[in-house]
Design goal:
globular; 313 residues; mainly alpha; 0% strand
């Protein structure tokens, strides 16, 4: 397929995706579900920067998501009810945590890296669980307000959805620019062959640390939006199962594409909502579906679209 046809396909797919995103809250079971999908789509794209492009499997990304949520919630509740200030505080906290955890983790490789990130993630979970005076402990952070943003009444679910959609689109554009920049190409090069990338002079650990911080930044932003959506920060936003869920979304959708994790988030959250309405064993069914997807379609949903429909995405 020539380059022009591939670009045309991408533009068509992006246009269709935007149209669906615009009308989605009107056809979704409820608007809050549509907003939750957008938040986890952003979280999955942030995680894909780590896994799909840098080749680092982290099981501690719930730490950044949860820190962004708790920081935003505490600012809104106890400091000053400002949405930009809350989101800024969330991304600063998550980015700082990303720098610290990344600096201590990136020199590990393979399963050792994964286990170190998991350990850090669970450390933050237990701190939040025990620090009840600040975080609410097992009950979570209650009564987080959602103030207006200038003329935007964010208390309206539909207004909040479109504010969130605009924000996620901006983040997606930034992430696409990052992964297609020389920085992004270097990340992919070291993912494919670390030794070759080092032999031509790249400081691999520095590139990986930057990717870690950027991923933590966008994960924390997703967490801040989550606090606004729920008017509440649940303790399990920091739990390793939240990290596991975003791993599932990324692999199911297709790693190293950014668009794939978005599809994964849509499918996983919609299926979870539908199946949980019929049975309490929905986690078992979701596990079976995930195993089937991994074993049957190694490239995820994006891989299916590429092979069956001959799409260049």
């Amino acid at each position: 397929m020539n380059k022009g046809a591939g670009s045309g396909q991408k533009m068509i797919l992006i246009s269709v995706a935007l149209l669906l995103a615009i009308v989605f809250p009107h056809i979704a079971p409820y608007i809050a579900l549509a907003s939750e999908i957008l938040i986890f789509a952003l979280f999955a794209m942030a995680f894909d920067l780590m896994l799909g492009y840098a080749g680092m499997l982290s099981f501690g990304h719930a730490a950044f998501f949860g820190l962004g949520a708790y920081t935003a919630g505490l600012i809104l509740k106890d400091l000053y009810p400002s949405v930009p200030l809350a989101l800024l505080g969330g991304v600063i906290t998550s980015s700082l945590a990303g720098f610290i955890i990344g600096f201590l983790s990136i020199r590990r490789r393979g399963i050792y890296f994964t286990m170190v990130t998991l350990a850090f993630g669970q450390m933050f979970y237990f701190i939040a669980f025990k620090w009840t005076g600040l975080t609410g402990g097992d009950d979570g952070l209650q009564r987080v307000p959602r103030p207006s943003l200038g003329p935007l009444d964010l208390k309206s679910q539909i207004v909040f959805y479109y504010f969130l959609l605009f924000s996620v689109i901006v983040c997606a554009i930034l992430l696409f620019r990052i992964v297609n920049s020389p920085f992004g190409k270097t990340l992919q090069a070291q993912r494919e062959n670390r030794n070759r990338a080092m032999s031509i002079g790249y400081d691999i650990d520095r590139f990986k640390l930057r990717a870690f911080i950027l991923s933590a930044f966008f994960s924390g932003l997703a967490g801040g939006f989550y606090a606004l959506l729920l008017n509440f920060v649940p303790l399990n936003s920091l739990h390793w199962t939240n990290s596991g869920e975003v791993v599932v979304m990324t692999i199911t959708g297709g790693m190293g594409t950014l668009f794939g994790p978005v599809l994964g988030a849509v499918c996983i959250i919609l299926l979870r909502d539908i199946i949980s309405n019929f049975t309490e064993s929905w986690t078992f069914i979701m596990g079976l579906l995930f195993m089937a997807a991994v074993l049957g379609f190694r490239g995820g949903i994006i891989g299916i679209l590429r092979s069956k429909l001959k799409l260049s995405i």
